[in-house]
Design a protein that fits this description.
Blueprint: H1 4-34, H2 37-63, H3 83-110, H4 114-144, H5 148-158
The chain binds MU-OXO-diiron.
Length: about 170
């Protein structure tokens, strides 16, 4: 069995991962409208990753005898009008997710659930990667500025990103 407070923290985080999937889907559509297919691909991978993060937690909570509570997913709102501003939003969002994962880990520590602490370690490492990955694209977008040719080159690079189903936990 899993502690009730930890179960609640997991359920809240599952909702946040699903919201992340939804938010990135909205961003994918934004780039579809701009016909920047490399960016579309980048967000498509992001969408799949967020789904995997949510499923990983759902399966884990289930395996621990916890009750999975799937809640309403908020309407995604993109902050920003340009690719640069959209990526600034992505970074802010990932930093927020990192804080929330840390909170779940804090609860796991508080209730002395060593198995959950161990499980959450994967997510903590994943957040470091997520922030670095987004930060990399953001840094390039800042360099690009108003240069449309350079933006198209970045778009080509982002088309190479592929999704590999993660082994969580
Ligand atoms: Fe599931 Fe991008 O954090």
């Amino acid at each position: 069995m899993i502690n009730e407070k930890l179960e609640e923290a997991f359920n809240d985080q599952i909702n946040k991962e699903l919201y992340s999937e939804y938010l990135y889907y909205a961003m994918k559509v934004y780039f579809q409208e701009l016909n920047l297919q490399g960016f579309v691909n980048w967000f498509d991978v992001q969408v799949q990753e967020e789904r995997a993060h949510a499923v990983g937690m759902i399966d884990y909570l289930n395996s621990r005898g916890g009750k999975v509570d799937l809640r309403a997913i908020e309407k995604p709102v993109i902050e920003g009008k340009t690719p640069l501003e959209v990526f600034e939003h992505v970074l802010r969002h990932e930093e927020f997710v990192t804080l929330r994962i840390n909170y779940v880990a804090d609860v796991a520590e508080e209730v002395r659930d060593r198995a959950a602490i161990n499980f959450l370690d994967w997510y903590i490492k994943e957040q470091v990667e997520e922030e670095a990955n987004v930060g990399g694209v953001l840094a390039t977008l800042r360099l690009i500025g108003e240069d449309k040719k350079a933006l198209l080159m970045l778009d080509k690079d982002l088309a190479a990103r592929t999704f590999t189903a993660p082994v969580i936990g």
